[in-house]
Amino acid sequence: MLRVSSLSKRYKGGDEALRGVSFDVPAGQVVALIGPSGSGKSTLIRCINRLVKPSGGTVELNGTDITRLGGRGLRRARRLMGMIFQEYALVERLTVMENVLSGRLGYVPFWRSFLRRFPQGDVDKAFALLDRVGLADHVDKRASDMSGGQRQRVGIARALEQDPALLLVDEPTASLDPKTARQIMRLICEVCRERGLPAIISMHDVPLAKMFADRVIGLSAGEIVFDGLPAALDRAVLTEIYGEEDWTQIHADEQAATPDTPEDRHDREERMAGLT
């Protein structure tokens, strides 16, 4: 479980990026983090994984206050936070398998990682994860030869190879076509449910957030202005998050993105029933 309490961040120039942000994310819940550019989404994720040091407040993961850690303790805590990036952050010249195994770098001695001699258990797990994300036949391909959707699947497998207690995801669909974006969001949500993983997904695509997330948190000027079920994201709420705008196109995009298979509809109804 992730618990964020009264989190604030003020940069040296005086800009206040986060203002007393508080929320909990229980096991298995997928939270979509939305808001306009500059609202504090990226800062919030960076404060959670301590790439940025908060000015105040606490971040607890399974009872450990990450904001108080340093050195070896912080490195151990970061192993428990799997990151999935918008631009994939793969090593292009390495194979798919080698990129996935890089998720174990925080666990193995330097000589093993340098020689690429990972324990057999790590290799077996990487094979199983690549099968789970649909890349079992691409193990030896170079990352540079993969499509955008395939690269994002490699990134998901790499994050899971860490055995994380939390997934932090930064715009995972921003560079993908609509069909692939839906597939990637579906995959992330499925693996979170399978493993009981809490996840925070920073994203701009409101229709996708409504379609797949269990919960939506809306940020504006560093503050939470909405925290609730995706179905409650009506035009009034969107205006509060983003400001005045004609939300007709968002509604049209949502209709276009509505699940059109029985499996999609069943999954969505099941998630909503469990949260009400």
Automatic annotation (TrEMBL):
Annotated ranges, domain ABC transporter: 2-246
Query: Superkingdom of the source?
Result: Bacteria
- Start and end residues of each stretch annotated as Disordered: 249-276
Q: What is this protein called?
A: Phosphonate ABC transporter ATP-binding protein
Q: Which GO terms describe its molecular function?
A: ABC-type phosphonate transporter activity; ATP binding; ATP hydrolysis activity
The coiled-coil segments of this chain are: none
UniProt keyword annotations, A-Z: ATP-binding, Cell membrane, Membrane, Nucleotide-binding, Translocase, Transport
Family membership noted in the UniProt record: Belongs to the ABC transporter superfamily.
- Natural source organism: Methyloceanibacter caenitepidi
